[in-house]
Design brief:
Blueprint lengths: L1 E2 L11 E5 L19 H21 L6 E2 L1 H16 L22 E10 L4 H9 L2 H7 L6 E8 L7 E10 L8 E2 L26 H11 L7 H7 L9 H11 L13
Helix pairs in contact: 1-3, 5-7
């Protein structure tokens, strides 16, 4: 059962205040290299950070942190606030943790990592990884949930702002330990169901053929799972021969593809 509860008496919490700035001598600032960034792009970057966090925790035998839509929204608020006030206090002078509505996410411990200046999830994650204090927060075995927010301000000198918001859920107020909408982001947005299913919808049709043609024309890229799915002859290369065979399959000229890959 997911918990959305009233939280009237705050338990005294320890707040971990951790900061990274790409303006320091340790981390050179990287230009964004983009003109427009929409909310979907920022959400994808946030999920990528969460995947990196959970991969790193898995390597150390730790449980994954569940992403929570509400916490991600609040982390985005904090990322936007950091554009004008790059510190753990909010623009009104309150601590970062005040951004969390205890009715929606009851917690007993919280922490945040902030960073700015880098334009990819991996580069920003490596900033945190190379800082002992930030890494300690990422590897804290007590934390249960995470929200990540990304803000892009093209007219700002640092442009990119990143926020990790960690909590340990209060199981006295939320016995199930589950928060509304919690999820574990997939590493890849598109996961083929079989060979030839390049858009991951479970059906091999002209849409998949169109994607393969775009890939061969170097108009799009494939993730590693799509690459495996497109390499119909499993010869380590995606060529027009693969496209021709896929077309024949779609048209019913052949009954099956050379290989079947299931994920």
């Amino acid at each position: 059962m997911q918990c959305v509860v009233k939280y009237t008496n705050r338990i005294i919490s320890v707040i971990l205040s951790l900061v990274i700035t790409a303006l320091s001598m340790n981390f050179p600032m990287k230009s964004s290299g983009v003109d427009e960034v929409d909310e979907t792009d920022l959400k994808d970057l946030a999920d990528e950070v969460i995947v990196l966090v959970n991969e790193a925790r898995a390597e150390e035998g730790l449980q994954p942190l569940y992403a929570v839509p509400y916490l991600c929204d609040m982390a985005t608020v904090r990322a936007r606030e950091c554009i004008s006030t790059f510190e753990h206090k909010r623009p009104d002078g309150s601590m970062f943790s005040e951004v969390i509505d205890d009715n929606l996410a009851p917690w007993i411990w919280s922490a945040e990592n902030i960073a700015c200046g880098m334009n990819t999830a991996e580069l920003t994650f490596n900033q945190w990884k190379n800082s002992a204090d930030h890494w300690k927060a990422i590897m804290n075995p007590d934390f249960t949930h995470i929200g990540v927010g990304v803000a892009y301000e093209p007219n700002d000198s640092r442009q990119w702002y990143w926020e990790q918001l960690f909590i340990e859920v209060d199981t006295d107020l939320c016995p199930s330990g589950e928060l509304d909408g919690q999820y574990l982001p997939d590493k890849y947005k598109i996961v083929p169901k079989s060979a030839g299913d390049l858009n991951g919808d479970g059906v091999i049709d002209s849409f998949d053929y169109g994607l393969l043609r775009q890939y061969l024309a170097k108009k799009i890229t494939f993730n590693p799972l799509q690459t495996d799915s497109a390499d119909l002859f499993m010869d380590g290369a995606i060529t027009y021969a693969d496209a021709a065979y896929l077309k024949k399959y779609i048209l019913g000229e052949i009954e099956e593809l050379p290989v079947q890959i299931l994920y």
